[in-house]
Amino acid sequence: MAVSLRGITKRFGPVLANDDVSFDVARGTIHGIIGENGAGKSTVMSILYGLTASDGGEILIDGRTVTIARSADAIGLGIGMVHQHFMLVDSFSVLENLVLGVEGGWRLSRGLDTARARVTALTRTYGLELDLDALVGDLPVGLRQRVEILKALYRGAHTLVLDEPTGVLTPDEADQLFEILRTLRAEGKTVLLITHKLREIMAVTDRVTVMRAGRVVAEVATADTSREALAVLMVGRALAPLPGKREIAGGPAVLATEGLSVTDAAGIRRVDDLTLSIRAGEIVGIAGVSGNGQSELLAALAGTLPIAGGRVMWRGQPWPSGLGPRDRRRQGLAHIPEDRLRMGLIGAFHAYESAILGYQDDPDYSAGPLLRTGRICDETRRRMSDYDVRPADVDLRSALFSGGNQQKLISAREMERAPAALLVGQPTRGVDIGAIDFIHRRLIALRDRGTAILLVSVELEEILALADRILVMVDGRVVGEVSRADATEQALGLLMAGVRDVAA
Amino acid sequence: MTPRRPLPAPVEYALIPLVNLLASLVVAAGVLALIGADPLDALGSMAEGAVGSAEAWGYTLYYATNFILTGLAVALPFHAGLFNIGGEGQATMGGLGVALVCLGFGGYSLWLVLPLAIAAAMLCGAAWAAVPAWLQARRGSHLVITTIMFNFLAAALMTYLLVDVLRVPGNGSPETRVFDPSAFLPPMDALLGLLGVPFPSTPLNISLLLALMIALLFWVLVWHTRWGYEIRAVGHSPDAARYAGISISRVILASVMLGGALAGLVAVNEVMGVHHRLFLGFSNGYGFVGIAVALMGRNHPLGIVLAAVLFGALYQGGTELAFDHPEITREIVVVVEGLVILFCGAFENAFRGPIEALFGRTGAKPA
């Protein structure tokens, strides 16, 4: 066994993050660890990598009991970690990033020369082609991840831990990553893949450990299980299928753009001559790799980013370009922002304060200049119970809620006013399956009540599950519209990637 | 990534500052011993001078009045994420407003003159803050830089006005004539005398009540009004504020100008309450001390009032110390005061770790 965990236990205050977690990972296999957010996957891995101290239990590497007090110990034992958020220096070249911390001697050039030879050998063995002299900041995400993997291998890792590695990748890039993982396995390396995506587990792992609420609830060979069975294990109950999509309702266009262009602060065109329309009672999905102008499109529609050309139409009339978010909201445009921590709520605010963000000047909430805190708290409490926000504590600081509960709090705020149109950005990023299901159902219910919804998501599964019409966005343009009948992950993936190749 | 769980309020707002204060006094004692003074005797006479008698309290609270106002003047823009260090200049200009009202309306009832003087002080302070605020809101010019420059401009302008315009002909000092006694603020001993409470004659006047009332209004404004909500939203997260449709530049303009207005009120205490005339340099560094007061008071009005009293005590105690101990020069007094500011302001988190460990709040949240 490459790695064995025996009875790992970790308590954070009242929360038992890991409760007697034990599993074995055989050498030369790809082992998946799946579970919802908060199931304790990341905690186990930080204990294994020496970032967190466990309260009990032991770790065996190659059958020997070891003590891992810091990440240097883990590296010494041949464990490498590829973090969800890359730990790379953008302004350094690939090679410089690889030797960072192990430069070898005070003369950098000598260290770099010896490193270059070793790295070149590694890239050949594992099929990790990379331009060693390119600046990391210039590389696409998929290649940056390769740098991380190479970095771990360069430090002599036999066991690679990848934490949610595909969150930032296109389906195509994810497939390339899986290919790399298979090569690593063929060369005798061991891979631990942490994810909450069933597709990945099924695609690439040999065995899978399922965690829920800090415990291991199952460990099975991937070949002997199915997505459905794993989903039930993860969530602890069967999820009913989402209500079906419906044929396009044909309501009037509520929100539309005509030749919309948006440039960012650096003057780069992010949205380029984009025309779309969203009718009452439909969900229009925007698929695309993150960073292709979706964020700027949402911001321009919401009124937080000035538009450089074209116009935004509301119920058939153009909106003046200077119309701010406050006025747009008053006319019935709600917005669940992509980045809930940066925009959707204010971490330092009490939950009841974040629960009125954007609606703070609603006359219902104030008496003269004073805020009616009691009434706001009552309403927040009601919504927390409707949306099952936990803990249902209106005074808790917003930052202390889990991602899923923050998202429910924001969704409640934006959806409970039955808006005429709703902008939704990455509604389930970093949200657990139970909450995803809940939010999806609410979105469908809102659509059925006649709201025009624009859904931007990098999760194709989400777009496919919810959208009545799907637009694919690449480099600020809509490169294709796929009717829901033709929409498959493959078709969309081709559109998302294919056009990009032509442009490159 | 893991947000810190807040400490219980008494620990956060009382224990931590107290530990910081003690640490600073220990180091101060070391400095005093180093120059050959008896540290206990020196610190004792400082404490005695600051809080040892009703008269000492009168002086301490008189200084504290200024510090409450300048502390709040820093704290309000701070809630919007801005650092107003122009309190000195804004107070100076407040003095101009107060003096013009008191000179122009001398002889009228205080019931007329006082509201006018308060309004004029706030207006002048706000006006002086308006240009830096506008530059920050519209042009992104750093408020710290512009407000510092406006301190110098205020001093220069006041010199010109007092030397060339407002000076009484024949008087050699740069100051206005003394106001009509009807424009004097009642001192606290007079007010307490009305209630039958004996109190020695000190510079302490009813401005203290004004400052306390403003501290209360500050609390209501920041935490219980829509406007305070918007200020705090901008301060914590400009992106979220923009998302919420809050005009960031309006919040910047309004919060900095209101901060200036609060600093301007120092003049009501100094010019109208104590000196009864406008003279050069009456602001005496109170605007700068306000920065330390706001930091130490965690930008909360209650904390600011407490910190202001501490700084008032330091000012008053330091004066007594220099008076009682000729071997301790004024500079050493400043060192002692500086140590308190250093430990309570700059090193405010030095003892936070151990104290948090003591209260078991260091555990990270599970991922």
Offer a concise description of the structure.
Chain A is an alpha/beta fold.
What does this structure look like?
The complex is a heterodimer of chains A (504) and B (367). By secondary structure, chain A is α/β, with parallel strands linked by helices. Chain A has 2 domains: 3-235, P-loop containing nucleotide triphosphate hydrolases (Rossmann fold); 253-346 and 414-496, Rossmann fold (3-Layer(aba) Sandwich), CATH 3.40.50. Chain A contains 17 helices and 22 strands. Chain A has helices spanning 41-48, 71-76, 94-99, 108-126, 141-154, 171-186, 198-204, 227-235, 294-302, 325-330, 340-344, 351-354, 373-386, 403-415, 433-448, 460-466, 489-503; strands at 3-12, 15-25, 30-34, 56-61, 64-66, 79-82, 159-163, 190-195, 207-212, 215-221, 253-263, 269-279, 283-287, 309-314, 317-318, 333-336, 366-367, 370-371, 421-425, 452-456, 469-474, 477-483. In chain A, the strands form 5 sheets. Chain A has a 6-stranded mixed β-sheet with strand order 6-7-8-3-9-10, with helices on both faces. Chain A has a 6-stranded mixed β-sheet with strand order 16-19-20-13-21-22, with helices on both faces. Chain A has a 4-stranded antiparallel β-sheet with strand order 2-1-4-5, with helices on one face. In chain A, a hairpin with a 2-residue loop joins β4 and β5 (64-66). In chain A, α14 packs parallel to α15 (433-448). Chain A is globular. By secondary structure, chain B is mostly helical. Chain B has 2 domains: 1-37 and 330-367, no CATH class; 55-324, ABC transporter involved in vitamin B12 uptake, BtuC (Orthogonal Bundle). Chain B is built from 16 helices and no strands. The termini of chain B are close together. Chain A binds chain B through residues 10, 12-13, 15, 17, 38, 40, 42-43, 46, 52, 302-304, 324-329, 335, 337, 339, 342-349, 353, 357-358, 360-361, 365-366, 369-371, 373, 397, 399-400, and chain B through 3, 5-6, 220, 224-227, 229-230, 232-233, 236-237, 239-240, 242-247, 363-367.
